[in-house]
Amino acid sequence: MVFQRVVGFRALYNGSSREPCASWNLAIRRAADTGAPARVLELYRRMRAENVPPDGHTLPPVIKACAQLRDLSAGTELHRDAAQLGVLPNLIVSNSLISMYSKCGCFDLSNKVFDEMRERNVVSWSSMIGACAQHGRPTMALFLFKKMILERIRPNRPTFLNLIPCVSQVEDADELIRFIVEECLDSDLFIKNAAVLMYSRCGRIGIARRLFDGIENKDLFSWSAMIEAFTNADMFDETLKVLRQMMAQCVDPDYVTVLGIIGACSKSTLSSLRQAKFIHRFVVRHSFEQNLMVGTSLIDMYVKRGSLESARRVFDQMQERNLVTWSTMISGYGMHGKGEDALELFYHMKHFFRPDHIVFVSVLSACSHAGLIEGGWQCFNSMTREFGIVPRAEHYACMVDLLGRAGKLKEAREFIEQMPIKPDSSVWGSLLGACRIHPNVELAGLAARSLFELDSKNPGRYICLSNIYTSLGKIDEANQIRNLMRRRGVKKTDGYSVVEVKNKVYKFVVGDQMNPQSKLIYRELAILMDRIREEGYVPNTNFALHDVEEETKETSLYVHSEKLAIVFGLMNSAPDCDIRIHKNLRVCGDCHTASKFISKVTQRRIVMRDSHRFHHFSNGMCSCGDYW
DNA sequence: CTAGGGTTAG
Predict the structure, then answer these.
(1) How many C-beta atoms surround the C-beta of residue A393 within 10 A?
(2) Count of other CB atoms within 10 angstroms of residue A238
(3) pLDDT score at A551
């Protein structure tokens, strides 16, 4: 301390500055204003090295620089300095710490700083709400907002911009809009753009659209927001319309717009491989294909639209690739059941990049889809041994999947019991899924009990368990599960299948009568079912509706959306065309079997994407090897 | 003199 004062005096009298701290502060502020966080930190360290004591004005911009650099250790150092220098408690320093910890990934530390503050202003509350938004805690964000209002703190623009992304219930959205109007912020462009997304998240695409239409000077964010909104609503045609509308207004898309369009095509059930190719051409025409993120999402788009070949072509032509690029391609091979290719690519990748936990999910799930026990174990073990990555629940889930599909249910169970972390719903879900292929009442019950606690709102789990009981002839138990589901107000997701024919996509639900060709479809279907029966197909009525007679069950199987879509595809495409089907749920077991037979008797390839993976049916076989 | 906010690939 004495030494510091001596140096301070020297600085005071050597002509460099009258107020050493103030001049450092000024330099730091200049660096901060020019957007040079590394320089800010460097200046601060030099200031410390020269023993000039920082004050309350020095620290906030430096803490902010740590946040921008995502440099947690520097940020923690600053926090320590603040405490040691006696700067704390200081409202502004604490506010900057909240944001810094959040940006550096430490939500709990943000929360701790916030909790321990004696005095909080609108910035403190807004920053904490922002931290909740960044760390996926929407409920807490809304709670904080209510509390803040109760404490009579007036929200402002940043408060709303932080809170809006947390809203996904229309009641909350409407209430928030009332606050926004009250603060006269409803004409703010940023706020309006965010509101478009908010209503789309609430499932109110109509409101989102009206809000969007009401924005008179739309900027790039507005257009991207609307594109994302239509993507969320799975309205792919509308997404493309927005793009055209945007181009007509002479607004040039940037790479983020393009990412939105590509993502829409990847996610939508109503887009096609043809449209994927159209979008790819659009991307090339606008010279975005060398953008790393754009290239990577093009790979993903082709994977999701069923063309591994095109995906690989994009991958090979990229001038720059990173871990995400490789991971996308690896998981692409996995989704299409090409486990060996995925492994090969993974081994190749290791020459260039150090794998992270997500690449391991890609490669492990590729192994599980392809039934590669040996390769899967090797990868799983190498995670910790070679790369020091601690397996997370999703990695365990892949392993349970891998063991379970292969019929090693006992091992799967033991594996779960030996997990060092608590199994989550993905792990139990894998076990339940395994019991579907290799029926086992005891294990299914075990998995189900945990699942109904952890994930009680997921209709797929109930249906799966009920199907397992049915397949074991335990009709009462199956009905009990259906009743439980009803009592808990869990609604079965309506299944549908989409088939691509030429330029268009056609959607079918079970027993569909909406298609103009319906009569013809059912006639062709009856003929086709007779043909595959001659080939040895036996309907599996476990997958039919309950509480009906056997014969009706069989008929009800015939009208599953998958089969209708396939028949429609067969009827309306050239004999050398693949039939491309997209089912929103998992493909039904009976439809899976039927598809194999259909591919044989018609000598057509059927490419079927379900909610889990791709099935390539050809000549009586499926690429999943019935591991699904 | 200092703090909080928009989209961004697996």
Answers:
(1) 15
(2) 20
(3) 63
Pick the closest to residue A242 from A205, A267, A291 (CA basis): A205
Do the beta carbons of residue A129 and residue A141 sit within 8 Å? yes
Q: Is the pTM of this model over 0.85?
A: yes
Measuring from the CA of residue A330 to each C1', which nucleotide is nearest? B10
Q: How far apart are CA A11 and CA A401, in angstroms?
A: 68
**Is the shortest CB-to-strand distance from A72 to strand B under 7 Å?**
no
Cα(A477)–Cα(A620) distance, integer angstroms: 34
What residues does A614 pair with on adjacent strands? A609
Q: What is the mean pLDDT of each run of 10 residues along chain A (628 residues)?
A: 46 51 89 90 94 91 94 94 91 96 94 95 96 94 96 95 95 95 94 95 95 93 95 93 93 93 94 94 94 97 96 97 97 96 97 96 96 95 95 96 92 94 93 88 87 84 86 86 89 92 92 93 96 93 64 76 97 94 92 96 96 95 86
Cα dihedral across residues A375, A379, A380, A386: positive or negative: positive
* Minimum CA–C1' distance nucleotide for A56: B2
Q: Provide the 3-class DSSP secondary structure of residue A576.
A: coil
Residues contacting A2, CB < 8 A, separation 6+ = none
List beta partners, residue A598: none
**Is A92 near strand B, with its CB below 7 A from some atom of it?**
yes
Name residue A247's amino acid.
Answer: M
Chain-centre distance for alpha carbon A28: 39
Sign of the alpha-carbon torsion through A609, A610, A612, A616:
negative
- Cα torsion A538, A542, A547, A550 to 10°: value is 10
- Count other C-beta atoms under 10 Å from residue A576's C-beta: 8
- Residues lying close to strand B (Cβ under 7 A), chosen from 260-319 of chain A, are 260, 263, 266, 292-293, 296-297, 300
Six-digit token string for A260: 């939105």
User: Residue with structure tokens 């959040």?
Assistant: A102
First to last CA, chain A: 70
Cα A260 to Cα A196: distance, rounded to the nearest angstrom: 15
Measured from the CB, is A450 under 7 Å from any atom of strand B? no
**CA distances (Å), A253 to each of A208, A227, A283, in order?**
20, 12, 10
A94 and A79 in contact (C-beta within 8 Å)? no
